[in-house]
């Protein structure tokens, strides 16, 4: 009987501890998010290879239990090399971006899933160079501005760590201008993404403090 009582007490304690966990956000919470990707392709038949990486960190602050504002950044690099000739040739580009966002959490799917809508706007610039095997030439710098509206979801693994799914940009607008050139504008409405949003998802981690 004593062993049974101790077992029941332990189970009750674990159940209470699990129920006591609070998943979600509240006013004055601070979050750090980020995702990182790196890719390498080497086509030995065509004697071409490509290396790229992209890093997107962001920080945010909850001004209420459901609304967060923050800053995000983007760092990326791409290098495509052709080694089929006597001398290697390559194209290389780097990009940097900074922006601001506002996020509204509007739906809880159970205790761990938190769904949000987000508006964001930011500045981007890209620089690069081309090497023909003997000389290197700078590519004209490109500067641009973009804005978009999207959806996302956090799944809480612990009280302070969540997996972030950036599902899709439903609406986006961008304008870019090359040094010495004319500007170009682009508008996208990805309403169809509701049917295949996991094809365009961005995955990362969210840390709550």
From TrEMBL:
- Per UniProt, residues of the Outer membrane protein beta-barrel domain are 8-190
Q: Where is the signal peptide?
A: 1-20
Tell me yes or no: is Signal among this UniProt entry's keywords: yes
Q: Which UniProt keywords apply?
A: Signal
Checking Pfam families in the record gives:
OMP_b-brl
What protein name does the entry list?
Outer membrane beta-barrel protein
Annotated source species: Sphingobacterium kitahiroshimense
């Amino acid at each position: 009987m004593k062993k049974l009582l101790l077992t029941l007490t332990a189970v009750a304690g674990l159940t209470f501890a699990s129920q006591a966990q609070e998943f979600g956000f509240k006013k004055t919470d601070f979050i750090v998010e980020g995702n990182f990707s790196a890719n390498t392709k080497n086509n030995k038949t065509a004697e071409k290879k490509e290396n790229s990486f992209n890093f997107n960190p962001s920080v945010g602050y909850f001004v209420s239990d459901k609304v967060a504002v923050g800053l995000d950044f983007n760092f990326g690099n791409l290098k495509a090399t052709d080694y089929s000739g006597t001398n290697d040739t390559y194209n290389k580009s780097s990009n940097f971006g900074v922006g601001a966002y506002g996020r509204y959490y509007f739906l809880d799917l159970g205790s761990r899933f938190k769904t949000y809508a987000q508006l964001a706007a930011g500045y981007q610039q890209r620089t690069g160079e081309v090497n023909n095997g003997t000389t290197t030439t700078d590519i004209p710098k490109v500067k641009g501005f973009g804005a978009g509206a999207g959806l996302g979801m956090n799944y809480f693994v612990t009280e302070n760590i969540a997996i972030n799914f950036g599902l899709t940009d439903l609406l986006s607008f961008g304008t870019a201008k090359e040094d010495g050139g004319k500007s170009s504008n682009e508008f996208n409405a990805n309403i169809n993404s509701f049917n295949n949003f996991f094809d365009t998802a961005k995955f990362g981690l969210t840390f709550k403090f």
